[in-house]
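Dear Dr. H.,

I hope your travels went smoothly. While you were away I took the liberty of generating a structure for the chain from your last submission, since the lab meeting agenda had it listed for discussion. I wanted you to have the full record in hand beforehand rather than looking at slides cold. The sequence, exactly as received, is reproduced here:
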Amino acid sequence: MKRTFTLSSAAVFVVAVLLTSCGHSRVWANKKKDPGPPPVAANRSYNGPSHAAAPLIISPTPGFTMARHSNGQYFHRGPQGLLYWKGYDNRFYLDRNYINRASYSNFEYKEWKRYSRHSSK
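The corresponding predicted structure, in token form, is as follows:
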């Protein structure tokens, strides 16, 4: 009787150890993402009353607000009232109707033209 109890409790212990040790092999660690292109600085020189000191491309940061348009696209209205549309790379691109109201460098314009989903319309 004592031998059966010891044998059955040892069997239960081995089964419990096997069940707890056979977990999934997935690692739940976050890997660093590729930072991509450097963010465009919002501090620009003021070029007169016709140009707003606003970037052509912005990246979301904590506290960033966006809304969904009736056509299903996401947009962001900047502090100057400029409209930004969400691109395929999760950055927001200035609407082409507001491009003449912003000051930008040649490099920024080329990047906006290349990645903006609205540049092909």
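Two observations you may find useful: The longest strand covers residues 74-77. The beta strands are 57-58, 67-68, 74-77, 83-86, 92-94.

With kind regards,
E. W.
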